[in-house]
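From the methods appendix. Each design record in this collection lists the tokenized structure first, followed by the designed amino acid sequence. Records were kept in a plain field format so they could be parsed without special tools. The example shown here is representative of the layout used throughout.

RECORD:
FOLD TOKENS (167 positions):
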């Protein structure tokens, strides 16, 4: 396997007290849920001023995945991709979110561009972002039941008639 495609899970260094690994040429930091906001604030100070993406992942069928020591696998994970323009470097954060309490603080106050990303993650996975200015659905109708990107969401159980569709 070439070095550029190698996937490592050995902790290489701590980033603001959190374990990090190198994966496919990019640093990945595993952040505890209770340190999420403080680590992101510190990374903004370090120059990671752009949040490129924020999304959720449902690991319902992959509970045995490999994570660094001290990180407990949960059903959900929030993945945040940050960018430092000055350093020309990307950084990925991975935060484990338990199914029993799918809540994280919002990053909106210091990364306003996460507004739509957090709403989409809420809409599709049911992960709530506390402190978000408008934590409502963004893709699905407001009265929609469930979260379509969850692995246990029943597909095709509800017939949907879209506007303008031919019957």
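DESIGN:
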């Amino acid at each position: 396997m070439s070095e550029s495609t190698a996937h490592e899970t050995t902790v290489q260094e701590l980033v603001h007290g959190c374990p990090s690994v190198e994966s496919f040429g990019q640093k990945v930091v595993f952040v505890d849920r209770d340190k999420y906001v403080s680590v992101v604030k510190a990374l903004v100070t370090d120059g990671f001023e752009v949040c490129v993406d924020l999304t959720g992942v449902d690991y319902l069928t992959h509970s045995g995945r490999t994570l660094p020591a001290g990180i407990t696998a949960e059903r959900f994970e929030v993945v945040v991709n940050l960018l430092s323009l000055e350093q020309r470097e990307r950084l990925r954060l991975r935060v484990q979110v338990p199914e029993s309490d799918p809540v994280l603080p919002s990053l909106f106050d210091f990364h306003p561009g996460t507004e739509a990303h957090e709403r989409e993650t809420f809409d599709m996975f049911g992960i709530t972002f506390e402190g978000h200015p408008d934590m409502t659905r963004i893709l699905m109708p407001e009265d929609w039941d469930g979260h379509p990107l969850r692995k246990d969401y029943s597909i095709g159980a509800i017939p949907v008639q879209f506007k303008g569709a031919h019957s």
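APPENDIX NOTE: Confidence is low (pLDDT under 50) at residues 1-7.
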